[in-house]
Write the structure tokens for this entry.
Amino acid sequence: MELLVTTLICLPFLWAILPALIHNSKCRAFFVYLGCGVVMVLSVITAVQWYLQGGKTLELNLPYQELFNHLFLAGDLFLMCLITYLAFKYKKYYAAVLAIAQTVLVACLEQWGPEVAETVALRFDWLTFVMILIIGVVGSLIGIYAVGYMHGYHIHHHKELTDRRSFFLAMIFVFYGAMFGLVFSQSLIIMYFFWEVTSVTSFLLIGYTRTEEAIANSFKALWMNLLGGCGIAAAITVGYLALHTVNLYEFINIAIGSPSEMICLLPIACLAFAAITKSAQFPFSGWLLGAMVAPTPSSALLHSATMVKAGVYLLIRISTAMADNFVGNMVALIGGFTFLAASCLAITVSDGKKVLAYSTISNLGLIVACTGCGYEETIWAAVFLVIFHAVSKSMLFQCVGAIENTTGSRDIEDMQGLMSIFPKLAFILMVGIAGMFLAPFGMLISKWAALKAFIDTNSVYVSTLMVLFICFGSATTMFYWTKWMSKILGISPREKSRDLTKKNEYISMFVHAIFLVTLILGFPWLSKHVLKPLTHDMYGTFKQVISYQNIIIMIVLLVGIFVIPCINYLFTRNTKAKEVITYMGGANAGDNFNFISSTGDPKEMHIANFYMEDFLGEKKLFTPAIVISSFIIIVYLIIVIGGSF
Amino acid sequence: MAVSTRMIIAGCYILLAPIIIGLLDGFDRKISARMQGRKGPSVLQPFYDLKKLFEKEFLTANKTQLFMIRSYLALMILSGIIFFAGFDILLVVFAISTAAMFLILASTATHSPFSSQGTHRELVQMMSCEPMELLVAVGFYLAAGTFNVSDIIAKSSVANIIYLPGFFVGFVFILTIKFRKSPFDISTSHHAHQEVVKGVTAEMVGKEYAMVTLAEWYESAILYGIIGLFFLNNNPLSLIGAIVAALVVWFLEIVIDNTSARVKWQLMLKLAWGVTIIAAGMNLFLLEIIRANS
């Protein structure tokens, strides 16, 4: 097992060298496919082997642990130098300050700080199991998609940009490695290293095109994530100076053991803060929205399988230490607020990728809220959401990317009648959207469990607010997805044209669709064999989160939503109907797209969705949302930090 | 509750709901007519209309509409079965909004200006109502400790309205929106001859429109059922109270419909959310406080 885990972490880092060095397009593509395949197979083998061994929590060290420790320290320093260099190159000195401050702090403590108990480096448990499957499988599929997409991106669409595909593909592999390392690490020092790697890698990916906007947005992402890194550095400092440990699980045990001591809660608060920045919750949502400038595969990677999932992973880890205390309340309120605010904002934008970005933030808000609640049901719901969200969001990003490559626009208003011109892409888009919000897909099950748990939360204020957040957030979520869905169906004013989507892109997207359907159908199995042991490990109790009766109803609903439309479709397919044109007050110009205007000439009719910009627009809501969420964070952090001294 | 009882009630729902709601609709028209000083159609007029619609020639602008409307009807009936057979009320709310999705998709599939306009207004109406619908489920959970409709009735010794007055007020308020009655008949009328071009159903002709009407009747039955649930307890006699309450709310809706003028969607959204937050939010907060102290 040690060998497998070590390979899983180190191999992607080493494999990254291959695409970086090979510049022949075909040859590089082969090695990227091979690498993604190897990573996928390796992660599945590791997971399955662990599962077959009975799913027991394993504590393990890397071979040559000492050497690796030095390597991690050297890596921290290297990243610091890299950030400082780039910060000076682009005159963004604040990034350098943040990087130097935290790295020097951690390095000094490690070298000259007080002695702390030796800890085992890695740990393998149920949550790790879920995470490596998501990273390995969904992440690798994005890698496969990236090869074809980047080819089209440079050859057909953006000839003006320097072709740095080697660098791009290499970074994707570095990302896999860092994520694997992150979800395995038990020692915070090691976790800190991988955490910084993901921050820097995402910074480099966002700045890929080196346009002015890309550079500005990448530095935005960098400083926010570095601020989060400071949170981990602070937790490590508290660990060295006060608690005499740097083991994540020790921190959690200490916090559970003495819930009234604020000093024990302090590292948890720091870690939660770091996780909130990484999962792009308000007030730190800006970086994920800015990340849109990067080519689609990196958006897919950041939004679904990696990066933001690192944040929620850490929150799920520490959630047992957050049940019914100040940190938990902070996290829950931030999550709930983000869920509502981001979904309101998603209504007002028409750029497909931006809607997806807001929906990621909003969905992560729900997951974060679940972890902040810290009950068994909510963790169950949170992990469920993580899995569903990873698959459907990755699929949606790839699909919107493919649509953009094919039709030249990713604006939702331009997707009118996509079903009639590009049925395959439209079908994938529909499945993805349905997976995001429709009953009885994953979201519903999780929302059900989350709502129930929030009603039962101890704090009256938090409980009331959270219930309101979820109820209103569900309504706004439904609005923006439905209006997107309603655009896709129907007829298009456009002529059919050639579908430019590459075969490998389709393979990746259809595999996602199959995964999504399998997950939906297999959810009772998933709940019983993965999520129940997972929550049992964390809470030590067996609790039936969702009753047997409700599982049956869900399955009935599920069958209903698949089978009823199919049967109806078959029944009505051959119904005799007289085709007529639509009603336009008698002013049709012979078809459904043009009308006779007041001047007597035919004019094309435009039908647009509601965007409610005056009501919920970005200009109106974004700044207040940042102010409110900053207020929540600052107040709770002051309570915790003030209480510690 | 025994499986056979559940099945009997669900069967009754499927058979009786259209008859009862259809009759109520007939009386609605009659009473409205009398309020306006007209004689009004026969009480059975809704059924005649339905029959006539089913017999009409099938015209359509997009054939895919038909299967989506049939799915809308089927899923609405399924939601009703979940409710009346006494299962989870939160799932009922989710199922209703899933069903409504098919109506939305059916009406936008035509690329018609009138039905698209109506659809987007309908979406705003759904967005206005959904928080309150979910909150009603939350309210029952707080009052009775369960989401299960049959348990809510069996476990309550007094009618839950005592704990949930705010939720009741909020729910009755959004009911006007749900029934698309004035002042919130935004999604079904914005054209001079409203009977012909009815917003979201503008492109639905003959049997399509008949099925939509039928689905709306089934939905109304669920909504009146939820009104009744506020008054039901483990005493079977409370059923009378529930029916009376539903009838009172029904009459109230007719009065509101006939005495108010249509508002804009902005005002509707503000009003609906405002009432939801104030009435249901306050009630929720108080219930949480009571729970925390007991």
In short: The longest helix of chain A spans residues 126-157. Strands of chain A lie at 58-60, 122-124, 578-579, 594-596, 602-604. Chain A has a mean pLDDT of 89.
